[in-house]
Design brief:
Distance between the termini: 6 Å
CATH topology: Deoxyribonuclease I, Chain A
Structural class: alpha+beta
Number of helices: 6
Length: 259
DNA sequence: ATGGTGGTTCAACCA
C-alpha cells in the first residue's frame, strides 16, 4: 500500500499538478492539506475519473484537508477530538483496506503557530496536546495507524538546511519540538527519518529569497507509523522534483510504502 | 531590519 501526504497549497491552483502527480506516482491513498476550499468547491470529479474515492473536510479560504483512496475507504471522521468550538478544518481520518491490511489513516494540518508569543502559538501547542491525547487512543486500538501531514514542526537541526535561521520561528521552538517528541514517544515511527537517517531531506522550501534554488529547505511534513504499521514499512521518501515544477506548492509530497 | 513570494478573497489574512 502506497500512501502519500501533500500540502498542495490550494487545490484549485494545483489541480493540474495533482492530477499529473497521481498519474505518475499512483498512490493507493493520498492525504491533502491546505485545500483552501469548501467541500462543494473541491474538484472531486477530476480525481474520481482517475479511480479515487474522495472525502473532504473543507473550509472557506484557509486550511482544509482531504483523503483520496483507490482502495475501499470506510468510517470517515472529520475534526480532531477535543476541540470544542474549534472551527478550523485541519484533521480527518479514514480506514483504508488492502486485502488483509486495514489501516487507520489520518491527514492533518497542524497549526503554523507564528508569531510566537501570540494566541496562534498557544493554539498550536493546544492542538498538539489534543493530537497527543487522540494518538494515544488510536494506538490503544492496536491496529495499523498512519498519521500523515504537515506537522509544521522541524524535529531536529538536521531537518533544516540553516537551523539557526529558524531559532525564533514557531516551527522550531523547544516547546513545539518537545511536543512532537512526546507524540513519537507514544510509540510512533517517523517513516522518512527511519529510511533516511542522514541530513538534507526536506519537504518545504519557501517561495521567497530563492529558497528552492539554494535547497534552503526544512523537513516539516511527516508520516508517523504505529508499531503495527511500522511492521509493514518497506520504504519512504520525498518526491522532491514536484517542487521544481512551474507554479508549485511550497511543499513536496511525502510517501511511504507498506507491504 | 526589512522584504523577499504565493493563494484566496476581495483589503486583508495566512503562510
Amino acid at each position: 500500500m502506497k500512501i502519500v501526504t501533500w500540502n498542495i497549497n490550494g487545490v484549485k491552483a494545483r489541480l493540474d499538478h495533482a492530477l499529473i502527480y497521481l498519474r505518475e506516482s499512483k498512490p493507493d491513498v493520498i492525504g491533502f492539506q491546505e485545500i483552501k476550499s469548501v467541500d462543494e468547491g473541491f474538484p472531486a470529479e477530476a480525481f474520481e475519473d482517475l479511480g479515487y474515492k474522495v472525502a473532504t473536510h473543507g473550509q472557506k479560504g484557509f486550511n482544509g484537508v482531504a483523503i483520496l483512496s483507490r482502495l475501499p475507504m470506510e468510517d470517515v471522521t472529520r475534526g480532531l477530538p477535543g476541540g470544542d468550538g474549534d472551527e478550523q478544518s485541519r484533521y480527518m481520518e479514514a480506514t483504508v483496506i488492502d486485502g488483509t491490511l486495514a489501516v487507520r489513516f489520518a491527514t492533518l494540518y497542524l497549526p503554523n503557530g507564528n508569531p510566537i508569543g501570540t494566541d496562534k502559538f498557544t493554539y498550536k501547542l493546544a492542538w498538539m496536546e489534543r493530537l497527543t491525547a487522540h494518538a494515544r487512543k488510536l494506538l490503544a486500538t492496536e491496529m495499523p495507524v498512519v498519521l500523515a501531514g504537515d506537522y509544521n514542526v522541524i524535529p531536529e537541526p538536521v531537518d533544516a538546511k540553516r537551523p539557526a535561521a529558524w531559532t525564533n520561528d514557531a516551527l522550531f521552538q523547544p516547546e513545539s519540538r518537545a511536543m512532537l517528541r512526546r507524540i513519537e514517544a507514544l510509540g510512533l515511527t517517523d517513516a522518512v527519518r527511519a529510511c533516511h537517517p542522514g541530513p538534507g531531506v526536506y519537504t518545504f522550501w519557501d517561495y521567497q529569497a530563492g529558497a528552492w534554488q539554494k535547497d534552503d529547505g526544512i523537513r516539516i511534513d511527516h508520516i508517523l507509523l504505529s508499531p503495527q504499521a511500522a511492521d509493514h514499512l518497506q520504504a519512504a521518501g520525498v518526491d522532491k522534483h514536484i517542487r521544481g515544477w512551474e507554479k508549485p506548492s511550497d511543499h513536496a509530497p511525502v510517501w511511504v510504502e507498506l507491504g
